Amino acid sequence: MSQIINDSKVAMKYRRFGKTELEMPVLTCGGMRYQQSWEDIKPKDLERKVQDNVEAIVQCAIANGINHVETARGYGSSEHHLGFILPGLPREDILVQTKIAPMETESEFLKTFETSMSQLKLDYLDLLSLHGVNTQEKLDMALHKGSLKACRRLQDEGVVRHVGFSTHADLQIILATIETDEFSYVNLHWYYFDQRNWPAIEAAHARDMGVFIISPTDKGGQLFKPPDKLVRLCQPLSPIGFNDLFCLSRSQVNTLSIGASRPSDFEAHLAIVDLLDEAESTIAPIETRLKKELVSTLGQDWADHWHDGVPFSVDIGAPVALYQVLRLYSLAKAYDMVDYGKYRYNLLNSGGDWFPGSKIDEANIERLKQELPGYRFIDQLPEILAEAHNMLNETDSKRLSE
């Protein structure tokens, strides 16, 4: 793969990525789902069919104007695969981002960075993220244990151009990280089926930070395998297309990460690029239909107020992920998103700080009346939570990287 492919099938659109001044494509080639292994691999162990698939994915992205490739040190062999591809592209025509978790010392972070660069076989990165700033402890580590200092040193040396952070944290941690004014951009979750982090997007935009939405298709609802009901409600768009347009209809959002596992995974996303100029009017009737279905299923009061005053988690014998449980319950009931609800619900107990909290069966539900006395639906909550657990609970699962 020696040159940029010029037979672009889609007139890709680009947005200024905040204070970085980079022109970012509205769709990004994410590197979490095409790797051979969740561990580093040796060159002799590289499977040709896997490498061919990664090359085809990158070729498809570039051919359609997606010139930003995003990966992470924590994505196993992902960087290794890209190291056979990216050096063959004109460096000035591509934007490359990797992510490294905050570490205990500056030297440890720099050593890990060297590993990333040796895998990617590049002289510099356009974007480096502190990966997984998910807790106050991780934020403190990033700021005070040498990771951020290492990033500044790398910027001074010209091997990193812009520094941001990625996060799966609760809103308050994301806001606190943004408010440090240390970062040029943020990778975070926000999409139609989970809008809790909107204040963080507004805060980032106010500081002229780039805003990068992660996992809109998978964490955003497993929209690559939607239930029939959701397909009907989103017509004439696909659920993927609706969610993409919903996110990109906000000027504060710059790009969405498309975690492709094969070239065809781009198709549903590329289909909406030509609709961006009419995004609001295109999605408005679908939003109305989705809201009407939520009201019809669970009532106007619940649809309007279920999330009011709901904390991310409540300690009632265990730190129950109350917000997520009620969100997943609502989606399963209104839109038949039961499989998605099971996928996310069964990460609880084992998701660590990437998806924190416990399931309902580890808590004393009746204690909620003591912990949330002012919650609008407190009297119905024990019954709702019991139904949610019965509907969604299966064997505990693990994150992809475990």
Can you describe this structure?
The chain folds into 2 domains: 14-278, TIM Barrel; 299-392, no CATH class. The chain is built from 16 helices and 12 strands. The strands form 3 sheets. It has an 8-stranded parallel β-barrel, surrounded by 5 helices. A two-stranded antiparallel sheet has the order 1-2. It starts with 13 loop residues before the first strand and ends in a 10-residue tail after the last helix. With 402 residues, it is of the alpha/beta class. Helix 6 links the parallel strand 7 and strand 8 (185-188).
Keywords:
eight-stranded parallel beta barrel; disordered N terminus; 12% strand; 12 strands; 402 residues; 16 helices; globular; two-stranded antiparallel sheet; 2 domains; TIM Barrel; alpha/beta
Strand-helix topology:
Blueprint: E1 14-16, E2 23-25, E3 27-30, H1 48-63, E4 68-70, H2 78-82, E5 95-100, H3 106-120, E6 125-130, H4 136-144, H5 147-156, E7 160-166, H6 171-178, E8 185-188, H7 198-206, E9 210-213, H8 228-234, H9 239-248, E10 255-258, H10 267-270, H11 279-298, H12 300-305, E11 314-315, E12 319-320, H13 322-335, H14 338-345, H15 368-371, H16 381-392
Parallel strand pairs: 3-4, 3-10, 4-5, 5-6, 6-7, 7-8, 8-9, 9-10
Antiparallel strand pairs: 1-2, 11-12
Helix pairs in contact: 3-5, 6-7, 9-11, 11-13, 13-14, 13-16
